[in-house]
Specification:
Layout (H helix, E strand, L loop, with lengths): L1 H17 L4 H15 L4 H8 L2 H19 L2 H10 L5 H16 L4 H19 L4 H13 L9 H10 L8 E2 L2 E2 L1 H19 L19 H16 L9 H21 L2 H9 L3 H19 L2 H13 L3 H16 L4 H19 L3 H14 L9 H12 L6 H27 L1
Antiparallel strand pairs: 1-2
Helix pairs in contact: 1-2, 2-14, 4-9, 4-11, 4-12, 5-6, 6-7, 6-8, 6-10, 7-8, 7-19, 8-19, 8-20, 9-17, 9-18, 10-20, 11-12, 12-13, 14-17, 15-16, 15-17, 16-18, 17-18, 18-20
Length: about 425
Amino acid sequence: MKEIVLTLFLITYVALLVLPKWRSYVAVAMAVVFVAMGVVGFCDVWTTAINWNVILMIAGTMIVVSLFIESKMPALLADLIIEKAPNVKWAIIMLALFAGIISAFVDNVATVLIVAPIALTIAKRINISPISAIIAISVSANLQGFATLVGDTTSIMLGGIANMSFIDFFWIQGKPGPFFVVEAGALMSVIVMLIIFRKQKTPIEIHDRVKVTDYVPTALLLGIVALLVVASFIPNKPDITNGLITMGVGLIALVYQAFKTKSIKQTVAVIKEIDFHTLALLAGLFVLIHGISEVGIIDDIAAFFLNVGQGNKFVIYTLVVFVSVGLSAFIDNIPYVATMLPVMATISASMGINPLLLYFGLLSGATLGGNLTPIGASANIAGIGLLRKNGHEVKLTDFLKIGVPMTIAAVLTGYALLWLLWA
């Protein structure tokens, strides 16, 4: 049975790579096969396999973020930042950093779609190519996804398996959490951008600020953060607490939208902003991973890492980080992280070490590694797609000369800091 399950899982993984538009259907279909084979019990699908806390957190955040973007608050914030920039170099760097800050709380792709059009407008006003600026914005957005609990799907998954609260991403077990490691990497990436854009000294001005149409979505997004912080201090709370909080605020946002617009059509349009394909993909993956765990494949993968690393903590940590960087440069990090998180737990238990070292190393490598190639992260694909739509074709070298040095700087910084803090 184990060989059959492993073969089916590998087939699924290949299909996820070669059929990106059909990923959700592939994952759900194979999950159904696992249930039909008896690898995963039908009741287990709904009670233990699917992490409903993760599903609800993602869905609720998507609802609020869609209204936040529609309110034009992010665009106003970007205008305010650019007003402080003396020239193009600093405008690009400040926009990239702004994208990173937004991305710590908002989906990476949404962040690019918020900030990149501002860079396009600036480029048109002063008649320069927007390619380098939008690549920097996309890479920076992807760098910051690991900073907070709600910053990225993979962070939400980590919070689920490690039982981490919103506060834990800032301070956990008496030590700095992922947020400070990510920000250290971001600071190193600023040094790289200062070198890359050193010749971009054209002055820049913003004449007309964007006007915010509605402040309620901003309050709701801040409300999610505040409630998650408060929930962090509740002892023995149910595992689904964060999901219920986030989805609850999402439902409030829908009710507000319905009363504000008095239009069912516009309210339904907000519901459609939920990426149901991603939710279905995750649900299917949760079932598949539960299945391979049940038959012992997770233990086998962990044993492989232990064997290659010969039980040496530093070697295994290094393997986890840089294998994750290499793989996520070409494959989507959601299925990879979903598969490897349980492996990290097994390795940590076998070696008697703090699992956070390997959890954080995995997320750091998988998140940052996507910036090594144009196809390694959804944010990069979105940025390049926006450029192509506006008549700018991006060469591989255009991306590599920005993505590679920024990634190397952030990865090495995170790799060293995580080891110093958690080894």
